[in-house]
Amino acid sequence: MKPSLTLLAMLAATLTAVDARGQSARSTGRVYVNASGWYQAAPTSFTGVVTPIVFVERASIDTSYRIRSAAGFDVGGGVRVWRNLGVGLDVSRFTRAGGGSVTAQVPHPFYFNRLRPVMGDAPGLEREETGIHAQVLLMMPIAARWQVGLSAGPSWFTVGQDLVQTVTITESYPYDTATFAGITSAHRTGSRVGFNAGADIAYMFTPRVGVGLTAGFSRARIPLDDTVTINAGGAHVGGGIRLRF
C-alpha cells in the first residue's frame, strides 16, 4: 500500500475511535478557509532527448533535468454538507529554478557521420506548477480546541518547464573537436488530471481562528512534448492559518 494511503487509513481508524468523544467537543464550523505555506523536500528529476538539424545532419542532445526541493503555498475553502463530511477546493502554486546536465553529439561541418561529443551544464531552467484540487473532506473535532481533517479527490495540474532545444559550441579549424559553450531553451506547458490526498490538524485559539499543520501527497503525469513526460505534485508538509465560520 502506498505511504499516503496507509497514512489516511490509520488516521481514519483513529478518527472513528474518537468520534463519540468528538461529537461533544467544539464544532468544526460549517465553512472553513485554510491558507498554508509548505515545503516539498524530495527533488524531481527527468530526462529528455532532442535531435535538431545541425549542418544538414541530426545532432543528439540528451539532458538530465534536476528540480531541487521547493517551497510553495496553497489557499483553499470548503463547506460541511452532512455531519462531518464536506466538499472543498484548494489551489496550490510554486515556482523554482532548476538545471540540468547535457550530453550531446554534434555533426561535423564538413563530414557526415563524424559526430563530435560535447557535454556541460544547463543552469537556470525555470519550472512553475499550479494545482487545482477538488476534495471530499472528513472534518472532526477531537478535543475542545483541536480539529482533524482528512481530504482526497481529483486534481488538475498545469506545469511550465524550460526544456533544452539546442547547444551552442566553440570550434576552430579543422573542426574535429568542439567545446560546449551553452544551451538555448524553450518554455513548454502541459496539463493533466491527477489526484490528491492529505491530512490536517488544527488548533483553534477561538471558535473562528486557529493554526494548523498539514501533510499531503498529489500526483499527475504530464507530457510536455514528444520526448519529455514529467511528474507534477509530490509529498509536502506545511502549516498556516485556519478559519472557521
How are the SSEs ordered, and which strands pair?
Layout: H1 3-17, H2 19-23, E1 31-40, E2 44-50, E3 53-54, E4 57-58, E5 60-67, E6 70-82, E7 85-106, E8 116-141, E9 146-170, E10 179-204, E11 209-223, E12 229-244
Antiparallel strand pairs: 1-6, 1-12, 2-5, 3-4, 5-7, 6-7, 7-8, 8-9, 9-10, 10-11, 11-12
- Residues in helix, %: under 10%
Largest sheet: 8 strands, antiparallel, barrel
Question: What is the straight-line distance between the termini?
Answer: 36 Å
Segments where pLDDT lies below 50 for 5+ residues? 10-25
Gross morphology:
elongated
Examine the secondary-structure arrangement and name the CATH architecture: Beta Barrel
- Share of residues in strands: over 45%
Q: Could you tell me the CATH topology label.
A: Porin
How many discrete structural domains? 1
> Element order, helices and strands?
HHEEEEEEEEEEEE
Rg over C-alpha atoms, rounded to the nearest angstrom? 24 Å
Strand order of the largest sheet: 1-6-7-8-9-10-11-12
Descriptive overview:
The protein has 245 residues and is mainly beta. The protein has one domain: Porin (Beta Barrel), CATH 2.40.160. It contains 2 helices and 12 strands. A hairpin with a 4-residue loop joins strand 10 and strand 11.
Summarize the structure.
By secondary structure, the chain is mainly beta. Helices cover 8% and strands 70% of the residues. The model is unreliable at 10-25 (pLDDT under 50).
Features:
245 residues, mainly beta, Porin, eight-stranded antiparallel barrel, two-stranded antiparallel ribbon, 2 helices, 12 strands, elongated
